[in-house]
Amino acid sequence: RYGEDLFVGYKHFHRRGIKPQFSFGHGLSYTSFSYSDLKLSEATVSNGEFNLTATVTITNTGRLTGSEVVQLYVSMPATSDVTHPPLLLRAFRKAKDLQPGQSAKVSLTLDKYAVSFWEERIGRWVVEKGVYGVRVGSSCDELPLVGSFVLKKGFEWNGS
Questions:
Q1: pLDDT band at 42 (very low <50, low <70, confident <90, very high)
Q2: Is 13 inside a domain boundary?
Q3: Bridge partners, residue 49, by sequence
Q4: Closest C-alpha among 157, 53, 65 to residue 106
Q5: Which of 5, 27, 100, 132 is 20–30 Å from 84 (CA)?
Q6: Residue limits of the Fibronectin type III-like domain (predicted)?
């Protein structure tokens, strides 16, 4: 039986503690990469908009030139009264053609869509106040960089 809900794909595997052979975001490469220096800008909320930039350093630690997709996942506040998946892919960017030993800074921008969920009971998008988790890495189960940010006040919105 197939049933669509919040916990489909990688969200289902994370919730149930299942480690698939090839996790969501897994890519094959002829080289290897390391992640470091996660920096989160100040989370800003103004006029119904949210903005935050995450910056990471990615380094080609292998012997061949390669590219890597940097993925950022968000966890909603633990204080929420609503059930949320444990990790939500909210941003990604490709670091292209890094030479062996070369590093690159990758910036990932989050907007209100990254911290919102549809609340059926009121028919609006909701951004909750609280502590949001951030995890960055190469796939949904390889997330070596961990951070968080706080929203002191939530808000609701409709449309775009």
A1: very high
A2: no
A3: 46
A4: 53
A5: 27
A6: 68-140
Please report the pLDDT score of residue 6 as a whole number. Answer: 75
| Token pair listed for 132 | 């949001």
- Total number of domains in the chain: 1
Contact, 109 vs 53, CB < 8 A?
Answer: yes
Q: Is residue 14 part of a domain?
A: no
Residue 4 lies in a domain: no
- What's residue 29's pLDDT? 86
| DSSP-derived secondary structure letter, 30 | S
Query: How many Å apart are CA 18 and CA 157, to the nearest integer?
Result: 35
pLDDT in tens, 99-114: 999 999 999 999 999 9
Q: Are 114 and 132 within 8 A, CB to CB?
A: no
Confirm whether 21 is domain-assigned.
no
Residue whose token pair is 């969920």: 117
What domain range is 118 assigned to?
33-157
CATH of the domain at 45: 2.60.40.10
